[in-house]
Design a protein that fits this description.
The structure holds two protein chains of two kinds. In chain A, a hairpin with a 4-residue loop joins strand 8 and strand 9. In chain A, the strands form three sheets. In chain A, strands 2, 5, 6, 10, 11 and 12 form a six-stranded mixed sheet that branches. Helix content of chain A is 0%, strand content 52%. Chain A has no helices and twelve strands. Chain A is mostly beta strands. By secondary structure, chain B is mostly beta strands. Helices cover 0% and strands 51% of the residues of chain B. Chain B is built from no helices and eleven strands. In chain B, strands 2, 4, 5, 6, 9, 10 and 11 form a seven-stranded mixed sheet that branches. In chain B, strands 1-3-8-7 form a four-stranded antiparallel sheet, with no helix packed on it. The mean pLDDT of chain B is 93. The chains are: A mainly beta, B mainly beta. The interface between A and B is medium-sized, with 19 and 19 residues.
Chain lengths: 113, 113
Amino acid sequence: AQSVTQPDIHITVSEGASLELRCNYSYGATPYLFWYVQSPGQGLQLLLKYFSGDTLVQGIKGFEAEFKRSQSSFNLRKPSVHWSDAAEYFCAVALDSNYQLIWGAGTKLIIKP
Amino acid sequence: SAVISQKPSRDICQRGTSLTIQCQVDSQVTMMFWYRQQPGQSLTLIATANQGSEATYESGFVIDKFPISRPNLTFSTLTVSNMSPEDSSIYLCSVVKEGTEAFFGQGTRLTVV
């Protein structure tokens, strides 16, 4: 069965430090790949997505993600985090353009002042 | 984009009762989905709401427990029937418009006592 793995339940980084959140998927072909952010009391917001083409994708709020087919990974990065980035981050995949999403367990990002 | 109005935003219900959640979109969309996010967990797809026909349920979810309607291209309801404390979750409506991306409502936070 298809699955999405986010191995880190929590990550704590200092404000201004770089960030990488890991995501691995299990699927025979390349699915559609997404990163969403969920802030306390807020809805889910799409940070970025990958369908095909350039494997390094840029998103909103200074985030980027790199698709690595050989590793079945789609890791999210940000060079310098801000306190407002504290939130829960979800990696998700869709097997087709119907966008029925399969979700990772989420990674809670904590920012140290 | 798509603006989604989901109501109610939260509710506290007695066990054994039912709650109907509404999802209204500001424009016609191709796909509508309902997800559940149990406390501290990721999202799980409940069903695809099909316009004018019965919803398509994922494994572990049945129509008797989660009846869904979608009378047109902009509106859907999810009913949580005969509730128990295990149904306490956030329920989210998601829509897809012309194969662009999935948009999410703010969610309904349900507590069953």
